[in-house]
Write a structure and sequence with these properties.
Blueprint: E1 19-25, H1 29-42, E2 47-51, E3 66-67, H2 76-88, H3 90-94, E4 101-102, E5 105-109, H4 112-127, E6 133-135, H5 137-143, E7 159-163, E8 167-168, H6 171-184, E9 188-191, E10 195-201, E11 204-210, E12 213-222, H7 228-234, E13 242-251, E14 261-264, E15 269-273, E16 279-289, H8 297-310, E17 319-329, E18 336-339, E19 345-349, H9 355-372
Parallel strand pairs: 1-2, 1-12, 2-9, 5-14, 12-19
Antiparallel strand pairs: 3-8, 4-8, 5-7, 6-7, 10-11, 11-12, 13-16, 13-17, 14-15, 15-16, 18-19
Length: 403
């Protein structure tokens, strides 16, 4: 008996045309999410995604795959909670296994100030239906028995918050899932096409200039993460962004021991274990602006020390590789989502360290904005013009990644 063989084209090749309804600059998870949502839910498939390298080559392939809804403002909690819920259905929606796994997030506290911050966050989370709870040191060991409650004798753990819905998804699977689904719906994804200019006349964007020639568009969307300010500059738009590097490293495969994320709000470090057994460690952003994607020895040494303080078994794990992802950080650590001061030039920028976490809801709401002009209440607070109006959404405390 011969079974049916399922054949699928994951990513088609197309000649770059001279015009599209929508041009999305950036073939990362957010640009591809937008392209998918435009085609799937609004019937807009005359879309070109332009990626100067290969899809997922930027921040999307350099993040640590953490998904959560534990944020610190009335604006960000429902936004990322909705995105987390969408991730739970993403494999079925895209017909692509994104390796989504709910494992929980454990945030350790070593000071009374941090403990109070976490208690206040828990109250906010519960108001918006996000399950988070406070744990005693004894309860921390019930969640993760490998934690050293003395933190090497330097910063004893005095409590923690726990987010059971915290999860992970494989970053390259999410990228390819969105790309494949968008491709099947008629979107053109062009790799190796670099945007070198933005065509703006009389305050209106008319398209882009690429290394393969000009491309006209009804609307242009910037989804280039750490390079957002550079692309916006080509359009004559000055963005309130700083480009900073977020570093991480991974060990060789280790016996499966960790379930979920273990992080410290005082030591600025977080650890998880991948499905392949690798132990991933991340820490705070570098304290200076850079476009360099080279990681540093100082980071590895300090992050390893902090991790061993919390999880002593990791002193025997051997470093495999380290990397850096570029983040575009706004003054309030919240994203820029909407039309810029140049008409028809839209921004999916300023996500900082949270672009992967918000990709489903960012793509959905931005697609609705482009297709209908309606601004979803979830992203209305993140309008790019809010700084001119002295209206900020301060959420740096949620990251635990920069001092």
């Amino acid at each position: 008996m011969t079974g049916l063989i399922r054949r699928r084209e994951f990513l088609g090749e197309h000649e770059l045309r001279s015009r599209y309804d929508v041009v999305i600059v950036g073939g990362g998870v957010n640009g591809l999410s937008l392209a998918f949502h435009l085609a799937e839910y609004h019937g807009i498939s005359d879309v070109a995604v332009l990626e100067r390298s290969y899809i997922g080559s930027g921040g999307s392939g350099r993040n640590t795959q953490v998904l959560r809804a534990t944020y610190n403002t009335p604006e960000t909690v429902p936004l990322y909670a909705t995105s987390l819920a969408m991730y739970g259905d993403l494999a079925q929606e895209l017909d692509y296994n994104v390796l989504f796994s709910t494992q929980g997030n454990l945030d350790l506290c070593h000071s009374t100030d941090t403990l109070q911050v976490e208690r206040e966050k828990v109250l906010l989370h519960r108001h918006y239906g996000v399950q988070t709870e406070m744990l005693s040191p004894e309860q921390v060991l019930e969640v993760c028995p490998f934690v050293d409650l003395t933190a090497g004798g330097e910063l004893p753990v005095i409590g923690a918050s726990y987010h059971p819905a915290g999860a992970f998804a494989r970053h390259d699977s999410v990228v390819w899932g969105y790309a494949s689904a968008a491709n099947r719906r008629g979107v053109e994804i062009h790799q190796g096409v670099e945007v070198i200019g933005v065509d703006v006349v009389d305050g209106s964007c008319r398209g882009v200039v690429t290394n393969q020639g000009p491309v006209a568009a009804g609307r242009v969307v910037s989804a280039v993460a750490g390079w957002s300010s550079e692309l916006a500059r080509m359009a004559g738009v000055r963005l309130p962004l700083q480009t900073m590097a977020l570093q991480a490293f991974v060990t060789e495969a280790y016996t499966p021991v960790l379930w979920g994320l273990v992080s410290s709000m005082d030591l600025y470090v977080y650890t998880q274990q991948t499905a392949r057994g690798e132990l991933v460690v991340g820490a705070e952003t570098l304290p200076y602006n850079t476009y360099s994607t080279r990681s540093t020895f100082d980071f590895v040494a300090e992050a390893a020390k902090r991790t061993i303080q919390l999880l002593p078994f990791m002193e025997k794990a051997r470093l495999l590789r380290q990397w850096t992802g570029l983040c575009d950080m706004t003054p309030d650590s919240s994203p820029l989502l909407g039309e810029s001061e140049v008409s028809n030039f839209f921004l999916m920028s300023g996500m900082g360290t949270w672009g992967f976490k918000g990709a489903p809801i960012f793509g959905k709401t931005m697609a609705e904005m482009l297709a209908t002009g309606r601004v979803d209440p979830l992203i209305a607070p993140f309008d790019p013009g809010r700084f001119r109006e002295d209206r900020m959404v301060p959420d740096a405390a949620s990251a635990g990644t920069h001092r």
